[in-house]
Amino acid sequence: MTTKLHALGALAACLAVAACSSAPRPPLYSALQTTGSFGYFDEDLGANRVRVGYRAPIRKAYSSSRAERERESERLVSLAYDLALLHAAEVATARGAASFDVADRQNNVDATVETAYGADPFHAPWPYWHHRYAPFPVYGGPAYGERHTEIAVSVTFVAELHPGTDGGFAAPETLKRLQREHPSVTGPTAAEGKIATPP
């Protein structure tokens, strides 16, 4: 009976893990505190100043070309800036500000090269057999490596809100422009908080 209960418990755990792994991914334009790993965030600094930012999902780049990795980093910085700008426009609109300026912008890029090794299943385990070692691949032997770069990007800036239109970014126009430029990310109703899930 105990064995059956353990088996049922293990099966339930496996189904729970499978359900989590198959759950739909949150929209790209989501709050960081909701996803825990990517999304927009803000901090009220007082005096009509808000620190706004966006952290992009970590991207794995498998190209060995440094130039291509740099292009991917630049693409993520551009995306993160646009989505942070979109959130700043939403914050400005919610607070009744007609425009805002961007100050103290910071682009944070962290590119880490990782190499994962694994045993080569098509390579014979000799000459380790005659050394009384455990069967290959426990004690080493032929292996292959997969190299990739994990690129983590975030962009932050201080949005200075203005009641008039004297700011560098007009809130309504900026909101509409970024919705047009990123339709698969933001959807047509981002201002209403109904963000479309990207395909």
Number of strands: 6
Helical proportion, percent range: 25-40%
Strand content: 25-35%
Cα-atom radius of gyration: 24 Å
Please give the largest β-sheet.
Answer: 6 strands, antiparallel
Summing up helix and strand content along with how strands pair, one would put the structural category as alpha+beta
* Number of DSSP helical runs: 5
- Oligomeric nature of the chains: single chain
What pattern of helices and strands is seen along the backbone?
Answer: HHEEEHEEEHH
Q: Whole-Å distance between the termini?
A: 47 Å
The low-pLDDT segments are 2-11, 17-21, 126-142, 187-199
Would you mind describing this structure in some detail?
- This protein is α+β, with helices and mostly antiparallel strands and 199 residues long.
- The chain has a domain at 27-113 and 149-192.
- The protein has helices at residues 2-22, 32-35, 66-94, 171-181, 183-186, and strands spanning 39-46, 49-55, 59-61, 99-119, 143-162, 169-170.
- Strands 1, 2, 3, 4, 5 and 6 form a six-stranded antiparallel sheet that branches.
- Helix 3 packs across helix 4.
- The two termini are 47 Å apart.
Throw out a few tags for this protein.
single chain, 199 residues, alpha+beta, 6 strands, elongated, disordered C terminus
Give the SSE layout.
Blueprint: H1 2-22, H2 32-35, E1 39-46, E2 49-55, E3 59-61, H3 66-94, E4 99-119, E5 143-162, E6 169-170, H4 171-181, H5 183-186
Antiparallel strand pairs: 1-2, 2-5, 3-5, 4-5, 4-6
